[in-house]
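Hi C.,

You asked whether I'd gotten around to modeling the 486-residue construct. I have! Everything is below, sequence then structure, no commentary in between.
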Amino acid sequence: MRHSIALVLLAALAAPAVLAEDEPVMRHSEVVFMYTADNEAYEAYDATFLAWSGAPTEEEVERHHELGMRCAASIWFLTAGAQLLHEDPVLHDAVVKDFDGNPVEVPWLFDHRHEGQETWFGCTNNPDYQAHLREEVRGVMNGGADSLHIDDHLGTAQTVDHMGGCFCEHCMTGFREYLENEVDEETLDDAGIESLEDFDYHEFARGYADNVEEYIEVQWDIPLMEEFIEFNREAAAALTGEMREVGAEAAGHPILLSANAWIGQERHRTVLPYLTHVVCENPHHAAAGTDDLGGAIGFYEFGEDYGIPVAATAGGHDWAHAAAEEKYTLVQVWVALAYAHGQRFMVPHRQWCFTEELGTHWHTFPKDVYAPMYRFIRANAEWFDGFSAAADDVETPDNVLATLRTQDEKAVVHLLNLDYGADADELRSQEEVRVTIPADAIPETESVELLRYDGESETVDVNFEDGAASFTVPQLTVWTLAAFSE
């Protein structure tokens, strides 16, 4: 039976939660792998969570559980893939159709073809493609994975605001129902629409453009465009939420749900109420070294402010640059940056890289460089889990990033060295780093313990004077935690 988009939205919103409130979602100290790895790699990093893909069978789930890890299985909302599009006539037609009625190719999968068949976006408003996605979820979750990850959760919405899609019959029917249920009469009157009976937005838009090129150029001048985009985002988000129920039924137990939601952009935030956590890419502007990390920091801060755990990796272009230039120290900064802002950076093991020239390619980063950082996190979980961001007016020298996090009668200051030399890929060690904090932000104590992943811990004196507390870090190499407790 083919349900309307409006009914799908209502059903998803009304669906009961499948995870108990006291069930752990993702701890701050979690050590997260993006993709599956062998036991040796997991043990080297003291891994606790496989977040993106890799455990679609009972055997793989058991392997991860025996290692003390929770694990996810994953599906793609993006496309059925070139091979299925070539072989299955139903899926071949269940794709995004642009203004001219033509399929839309996934630009970054230009090198993924099968016997001449391009990789086209699947239409997540098409019942046939939705049925395919549900079957995909059942297939990867019947092994009992703990979590389901949805890659490219925007589905059809990804093509709507700049690629000329989607004007298939299902999108037109769904949008008409959305206008009937979600849009007030005044907005419709302003658009010149007297009746929604048999209303077709494609025909309406033809009054402004004759072909897809013209449409993309003028689409923001077409009435109801914002509503059209919002409809597609909400429909994709509701379908994502539905997959949690489908996955839980297949797994036989409550599950977590994540998506590759690039929360730095508004269009990726519609899905957040449906998710337990976010597993995503966060651009770090690798070519700029440590000079352009504001966007990455804002990404993490939004996740904490919203209240959703984030496990991030860098972008494909970032990884391509780090791999080609062997910027391994720079990646250490990325790891510390995420944890210093209350989130997690997925282990830089085997990483997806992308450039326009090479397309998709892969690089394995040296575990001896990063495993000590992650084992340090696990060994000091008490200084990560349960803390939240506090005052942001911590005073440090230039090229030192500081964040203050507190929990009850404890506080921790993350100190991160940003004095990075790109030519040599090195952080210049900083000596006698003076740190000053509002006195009322930390426990009143005579000393603070300095914790380092690359050296011995030590205790230094704390001085309280004129409403401020200060201490000196003898040497800051990469990342140090100043841990306060009564």
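If it helps when you're writing up: The chain has two domains: 5-281, 389-485.

Thanks,
B.
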